[in-house]
Amino acid sequence: MATLGRFFAAPRESFFLFGPRGTGKTTWLRHQLPDGLFVNLLQPETYRSLKARPERLSELVRGNPEKADVIVDEVQRAPELLPVVHYLIESGANRRFVLTGSSARKLRRAGTDLLAGRALLRTLHPFMAAELPHFDLDTSLQSGMVPLVVMADDPASVLASYASLYLEQEVQAEGLVRNVGSFARFLETVSFSHAGVLNVSNVARDAQISRKTVDGYFEILEDLLLAFRLPVFTRRAQRATAAHPKFYLFDAGVFRSLRPAGPLDRPQEIEGAALEGLVAQHLRAWVAYTHLDVELFYWRTRSGVEVDFVVYGPGGFWAVEVKNSAAVRREDVSSLRTFTQDFPACQPLMLYRGNDRLLIDGVRCLPVAEFLTGLDVSRREMV
Questions:
Q1: Structural domain boundaries of the chain?
Q2: pTM score of the predicted model
């Protein structure tokens, strides 16, 4: 995979680097830390050796004193190594340990404590628009922003096999589910909930799977970093708000590959969900990379008034609405106006598919492509 500049910055101390398969963790580390000691647990010989005798990692580290960085790739394959890493950190080995993985689930299930806070937790997200030399909105809505897909010679083929990659290499190989067929059916069913308010009971009914099993499947998706839920913004709520979170798959392209389409589907419906998801993944990455001490929410009253995203915390307060249309009317910003009536301190923002910057009833309206390419983590303001 070719290397592009990423907004992610490595901490000076030891850290875990989690991220879904294909987000470029290994590529980025080999480019940023070319002189580090790489321990690749995907290599069968290395895996077997360290799995059988974890203390060999200590011998490797001490046998390479010139290596300031020690990278253990896919550490979830051998949780037994974490106590060794913990010991080396505590014993003053004076190294920075970088532990990568596509899931912390197996580490936690093995009873490990993720080094008891001795290593920071960081996540590498799909590409952001501003990380790419050329960003095309329509292409990103179709293929998504996963580096493995974006940098492929045939993105469509790689994207089509992405879900099966997880089913085979992550879910099935790690024994996370008993019935892979049920999980595959769940993935297809849950794609209809993307960018929508999540009702787990409805998903269980549509997938013909028990509610308890579906709860477990959602945990697996989130542990593998394939999906996330946005909670309702309830700070000093002046109106009765919804109770259920919103659900998003982590990448717009992955959503499109999982979402079945037929003659009864409206293209605008799928396109709108993909656009909202694309904005969601960018906001999530921006929050993670800027370390602004803000969190991502959505807002919905019980009467149905909704704002797609609320970014809130000591670092700032923004309300963002996404519209899959080339034009904005006054009624389109009504939800944002309602929100600003309750929360005057927020900065409202409408993103749409047009080309002009507008100001409608105090709401800034920006072309969504312009917003995404301008979402730079070097700035402390969203716009």
A1: 15-123, 129-373
A2: 0.93
